[in-house]
Structures are given as structure tokens and as C-alpha cells.
Amino acid sequence: MYQFYALNILFNIVGGVTLAYGFFEEKMRFGDFLNEEGIRNEVFRTAIGALTLLFGFAKLISVTEGNWYVLGDFFPAIAGMATGFTLLLERWYREEARTEVLDARSLRYRLERVFILPKNVYGGISVIAGIVHLLFHHIPLL
After folding, report:
1. What per-residue string of b and e applies to 8-45 under the rule 16 or more CB within 10 Å gives b?
2. What is the pLDDT of residue 76?
3. Residue 133's pLDDT is what?
4. Residue 15 near residue 52 (C-beta atoms within 8 A)
5. Among 41, 77, 46, which Cα is nearest to 61's?
6. What gap in Å lies between CA 132 and CA 42, rounded to an integer?
7. Does 77 reside within a domain?
8. Mean pLDDT over the full length of the chain
9. pTM
């Protein structure tokens, strides 16, 4: 369905910019074009995270005409789900007390190492996935 295709591209790009806003602001001066207060607002970040996760999952199970079933939009769907999950996890992680010492075997420690610390990478990959998916939509794995 083309609605999921368009929304997946939109939320991959918006979710990626939202997740890696600090990186994009530092390297490309995104603050001149975007409202920093709005991007850093926790309600906005949570809503974008939930929608990015939702449309990433929807794109994984929906088929765009001419693509393979399930694998047709695999990379953008996985990028969207990872970005959405990281935005939601970041919200949960901030609400928890950061003063406690994390055990290396704890789930919170592992989630932080896998998702929170490389969030700029996930955001950049999500933006790239959205742009590449927009430009090369006929390639089977994109």
C-alpha cells in the first residue's frame, strides 16, 4: 500500500532527525531550520517514536506493488522499527533514576549499550534509509 510506503519514508526521516538531532545540529546546523524546543520535547519524541515504530512494523508486513513479500521493504522497515524503539526506550530510560550503578549483566545496561549510546548511528541510518527508499523504491530489498 502506498500510504504505508509514504508514511514509512516520512517517519524514517523525521524519526531519524529527532533521534540524532544533537549530531545533525552539530554537523549540519539543523537548528537554523528546526525548532529545537519542539524536537527535544519529550511528548513529541515519544509520539514520533511510537509512530515510527508502528509504521516500520506496518511496512514490514505490507506489500508495495512490484516488491517481494516481507523482504520488499525490509531495510527501511527495520530502520524505522529500530529508530522508533530507541526513541521510546530513551524516554523510558530518562524517566528512570540515572543515579543507580548499573550491573554489566542487567537488562538496562545492555539496552543502553545497544540502543542509547549509538542513537546517532540509528538516526543517521534511518534518515539514509528513508531517502534511499524514496529514490530507489523499485529495488527489492529497499
Report:
1. bbebbbbbbbbbbbebbbeeeebeeeeeeeebeeeebb
2. 86
3. 84
4. yes
5. 77
6. 28
7. yes
8. 81
9. 0.81
Count: domains in the chain: 1
If one compares 81 and 30, the residue with the highest pLDDT of the two is 81
Give the range of the structural domain holding residue 111, as residue numbers without chain letter.
Answer: 2-135
Q: Which residue in 36, 32, 17, 50 sits closest to 122, CA to CA?
A: 17
Mean pLDDT score, 106-122: 84
Sequential DSSP letters for 11-65:
HHHHHHHHHTHHHHHHHH-GGGTS-HHHHH-HHHHHHHHHHHHHHHHHHHHS--T
Per the domain annotation, does 46 fall within a domain? yes
Q: Give the model's pLDDT for residue 121.
A: 92
pLDDT at 69 over 60: no
Residue type at 141?
L
Per-residue CA distances from 137 to 69, 104, 117, 127, 132 (Å): 14, 41, 31, 15, 8
